[in-house]
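Figure 3 (text version): structure tokens given as input.
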């Protein structure tokens, strides 16, 4: 019995355990299921401020209603970047993607998605649509509830009538307005229809020009200007808005205002931007979408027009206008964004102020990392700074830019990129491919903007031009290989073999070599290439190259060979082989012709992108693209020396023409390229080798075009003096980047190497050396007055270890030139630095020379770079006839701000540095030849290396002065250049 009970108890226990197991295993199944997050797709046609604001508002509206991206809502954003095929593919993906709801921004996005969603499989909310009833998506005009059940949204008709009425208030005499619009754009047609009615009611003639694509916009706008319009108007048109920059440029050229129906266009240059606050429109659409996700029946939603208006004014546009436009005080006070006459921004509530930089006192921090200094890199850097200014962020006022230069040392680049964090940078700009590669490898949490680089897809980014690394954007550089080789074939029809040097250690050099080779073979050329991977080896590699029976040298761009181009030019000249290049400044160093990407413009575009990112745009949403603008530069004298004649028609097309060689103007035939070298005059034999390797230490205070030119002259002259780098000397270059604390430490570091000669540029560098260096020979350059700097009591009685080249400006020559250009001038202005002795000296010398020809010099002192732009604007208001900017380290670096003020005031700008006329905005430069000064410095250094004491070598004045005229800048500044000045100019840009 007991045994039976035990067996029964065991059975009951096992049954209980089995039941419990089943209950536990079913526990998860019996818990309430967690509902998945709602899924929403947001679709915009392209990246434009209006649409970007709308999308940002959509997300804010959803968040306000409790639908927060990532926590209570899953959001997928789509952007077709203006491509119709991509937009259609996106629409199909959204409809079949299992989303609970889709939101579109723009009329075209509405139409594309509605067409793909005809069966109503997806709930669709639209916004940022001018007239949804004219979009042909099934809405019934006049019936707010007459819409498909799955399609609802908000219409936003731009306040066209209000804008025309405001224009009449600002200019009561307004009679004729022009507009460019795309017939394929339904919103454009709707806006133009209202504009016709309102302009007729106001007595204004509306002239129209049609544009079928963005490429047509500029030409259409110019046709309106030729018909005498007093203003341009931009309504709700996706095609034309995408090309808004072209409209702004045409309006500026014509000196008429642009009036736009979007507040964001005021930032881009429009005088008035009156339109919807699209951030608020997006918020309303987001709130509507949230209600629908919460169960609201879409059939009960009315489709209505909602226009929360906002006014933005850009009063800086007033200074350029040919007619009188006056903005009343009540209009100013009613604007949510005002950019005043000096470019300062003020916001007044609302949400339409798109610019974080408008916050008073807000200054951004940028670190700019570059591999080395050379003409292309320096032009790119200046372009970046100009682009930032054009984008509304003026360096020194709105943004602090810290330049870090690796001095050609690739291993230093990662450290420079890391240093951006110690700079507390909010954005990094890289110039050159190695700098970009270093940033891509080490920076993932800061925006990176690149310029003068290979396409990032070739150096590590595995995405596409449209979908790429989330923190990277910029402008890449691909040389115009096809166009240059076509020119070469035109000039040398019988050419078959061309050559180039390349650096196997530089990825961009190897890539460009491959590109040139493919292009050459396609055009019937054989490409001969010789490697060189160090500055000391370039001259020998160039000699080896030109000995291979070449018809021409076509030198690719890379950091090494651009910095060492003088050695290539010397070899080509001696072998009488024409030299072609892909960098325009190289025509000044011996290239016969260069067809180059406009690196300054590429830098400008990168600077504009940087400004957009600092204001809040995502780098990942900005497509990668290449430089499109090119520059043709010619050197007829260099061509003639190689037996090549440049046709007059080609020279006439060139933006840069070096010198005035008889070969460029004389119809007499030149010797054929195949003429034997024996027919040339025999060059004198260079002095013998030094017999030892000397240590040359170069120290700069700051980068400038003068320093670049001087270094080019120095390095080109040393071989002519029998001093070959690597055999007779090793050179180390140090740059203090404009910081005195850096300068002292760099001088100490240079002296610690026990140099044979210390080569210095600039007055601050010489002054610092005079205090610290007593037993090392010094040869200086780019010093206006060495006596004033403390180097001696006269040019012959000076500090015993010092000699050098004085580059005192040609004050009398400048005064004569100003009087020649402006016979009635009475007052001329300049900025100077009271704390910089050479700046004060140059101011006083200019004042004395101008007084001798009856002109008063008005000067304003500035002590920091941040003051330059505002001081230049103040100078233009002093009733002056022109600006004649004296040389000084600070103002040479900040010359762009002075040029900008001169352009705005239409005041002729004269300069004492050639580069400031060639590419800096000055109309005329009366300049010491700093390249010749560098050659003169090399001559003094050679004398010291061969045994002479600096004490026995008197200071010298630079041996040449040049006059440079820039006709394009002169036209912008409304200055007519006298024929007498053109006749004796050494260089005329833009002829």
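Below: residues designed for each position.
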């Amino acid at each position: 019995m007991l045994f039976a009970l035990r067996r029964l108890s065991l059975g009951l226990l096992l049954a209980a355990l089995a039941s419990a197991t089943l209950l536990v295993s079913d526990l998860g199944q019996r818990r309430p299921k967690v509902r998945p997050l709602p899924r929403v797709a947001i679709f915009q046609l392209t990246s434009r401020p209006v649409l970007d604001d709308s999308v940002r508002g959509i997300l804010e509206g959803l968040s306000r209603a409790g639908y927060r991206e990532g926590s209570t809502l899953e959001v997928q954003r789509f952007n077709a970047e203006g491509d119709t095929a991509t937009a259609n593919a996106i629409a199909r993906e959204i409809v079949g993607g299992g989303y609970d709801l889709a939101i579109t921004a723009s009329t075209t996005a509405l139409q594309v998605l509605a067409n793909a969603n005809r069966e109503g499989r997806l709930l669709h909310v639209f916004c940022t649509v001018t007239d949804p009833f004219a979009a042909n998506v099934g809405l019934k005009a006049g019936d707010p509830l007459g819409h498909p059940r799955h399609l609802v949204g908000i219409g936003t008709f731009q306040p066209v009538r209000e804008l025309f009425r405001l224009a009449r208030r600002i200019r009561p005499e307004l009679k004729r307005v022009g507009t460019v619009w795309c017939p394929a754009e339904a919103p454009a047609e709707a806006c133009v229809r209202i504009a016709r009615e309102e302009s007729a009611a106001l007595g204004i003639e509306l002239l129209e020009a049609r544009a079928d694509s963005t490429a047509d916009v500029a030409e259409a706008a110019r046709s309106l200007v030729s018909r005498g319009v007093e203003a341009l108007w931009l309504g709700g048109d996706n095609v034309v808005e995408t090309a808004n920059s072209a409209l702004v440029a045409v309006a500026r050229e014509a000196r008429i205002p642009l009036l736009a129906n979007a507040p964001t266009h005021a930032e881009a240059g429009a005088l008035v931007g009156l339109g919807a606050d699209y951030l608020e429109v997006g918020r309303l659409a987001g709130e509507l979408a949230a209600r629908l996700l919460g169960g609201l029946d879409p059939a009960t939603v009315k489709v209505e027009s909602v226009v929360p208006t906002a006014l933005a004014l850009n009063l800086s546009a007033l200074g350029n206008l040919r007619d009188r436009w006056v903005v009343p005080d009540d209009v100013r006070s009613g604007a949510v964004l005002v950019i005043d006459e000096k470019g300062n921004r003020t916001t007044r509530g609302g949400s339409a102020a798109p610019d974080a930089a408008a916050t008073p006192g807000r200054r951004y921090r940028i670190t700019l990392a570059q591999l080395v200094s050379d003409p292309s890199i320096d032009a790119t850097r200046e372009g970046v700074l100009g682009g930032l200014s054009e984008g509304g962020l003026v360096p020194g006022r709105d943004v602090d830019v810290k330049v870090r230069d690796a001095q050609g040392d690739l291993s230093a680049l990662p450290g420079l990129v890391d240093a951006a964090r110690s700079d507390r940078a909010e954005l990094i700009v890289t110039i050159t491919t190695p700098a970009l590669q270093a940033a891509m490898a080490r920076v993932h949490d800061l925006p990176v903007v690149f310029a003068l680089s290979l396409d990032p897809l070739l150096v590590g980014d595995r995405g596409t031009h449209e979908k790429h690394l989330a923190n990277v954007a910029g402008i890449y550089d691909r040389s115009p290989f096809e166009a240059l080789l076509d020119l070469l074939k035109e000039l040398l029809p019988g050419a078959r073999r061309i050559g180039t040097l390349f650096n196997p250690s530089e990825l961009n050099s190897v890539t460009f070599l491959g590109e040139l080779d493919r292009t050459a073979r396609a055009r019937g050329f054989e490409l001969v290439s010789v490697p060189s991977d160090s500055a000391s080896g370039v001259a020998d590699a160039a000699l080896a190259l030109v000995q291979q029976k070449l018809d021409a040298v076509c030198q690719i761009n890379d950091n090494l060979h651009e910095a060492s181009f003088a050695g290539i030019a010397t070899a080509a000249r001696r072998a009488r082989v024409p030299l072609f290049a892909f960098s325009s400044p190289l025509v000044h160093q011996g290239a016969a012709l260069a067809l180059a990407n406009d690196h300054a413009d590429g830098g400008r575009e990168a600077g504009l992108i940087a400004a957009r990112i600092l204001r809040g745009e995502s780098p990942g949403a900005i497509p990668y693209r290449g430089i499109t603008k090119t520059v043709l530069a010619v050197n007829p004298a260099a061509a003639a020396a190689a037996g090549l004649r440049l046709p007059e028609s080609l020279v006439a097309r060139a933006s840069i023409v070096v010198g005035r060689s008889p070969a460029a103007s004389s119809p007499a035939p030149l010797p054929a390229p195949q003429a034997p070298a024996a027919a040339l005059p025999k060059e004198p034999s260079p002095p013998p080798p030094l017999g030892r390797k000397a240590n040359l230490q170069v120290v700069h205070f700051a980068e400038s075009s003068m320093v670049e030119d001087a270094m080019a002259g120095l390095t080109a002259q040393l071989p002519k003096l029998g001093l070959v780098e690597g055999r007779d000397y090793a050179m180390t270059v140090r740059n203090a980047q404009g910081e005195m604390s850096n300068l002292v430490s760099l001088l100490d570091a240079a002296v610690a190497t026990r140099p044979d000669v210390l080569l210095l540029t600039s007055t601050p560098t010489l002054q610092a050396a005079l205090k610290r260096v007593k037993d090392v020979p010094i040869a200086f350059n780019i010093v206006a007055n060495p006596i004033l700097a403390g180097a001696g009591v006269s040019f012959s009685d000076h500090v015993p270890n010092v000699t050098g080249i004085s580059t005192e400006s040609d004050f009398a020559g400048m005064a004569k030139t100003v009087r020649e250009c402006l016979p009635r001038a009475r007052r001329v202005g300049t900025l100077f630095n009271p704390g910089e002795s050479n700046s004060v000296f140059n101011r006083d010398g200019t004042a004395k020379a101008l007084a001798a020809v009856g002109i008063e010099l008005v000067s304003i002192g500035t002590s920091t770079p941040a003051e330059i732009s505002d001081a230049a604007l103040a100078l233009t208001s002093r009733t002056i006839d022109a600006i004649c900017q004296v040389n000084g380290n600070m103002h040479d670096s900040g010359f762009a701000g002075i040029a900008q003020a001169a352009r705005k005031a239409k005041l002729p700008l004269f300069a004492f540095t050639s580069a400031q006329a060639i590419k800096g905005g000055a109309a005329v430069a009366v300049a010491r030849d700093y390249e010749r000064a560098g050659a003169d410095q090399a001559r003094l250094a050679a004398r010291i290396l061969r045994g002479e004491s600096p004490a026995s070598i008197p200071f010298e004045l630079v041996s040449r002065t040049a006059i440079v005229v820039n006709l394009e800048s002169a036209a912008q500044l409304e200055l007519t250049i006298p024929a007498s000045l053109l006749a004796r100019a050494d260089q005329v840009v833009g002829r």
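The CA atoms of residues 482 and 519 lie 6 Å apart.
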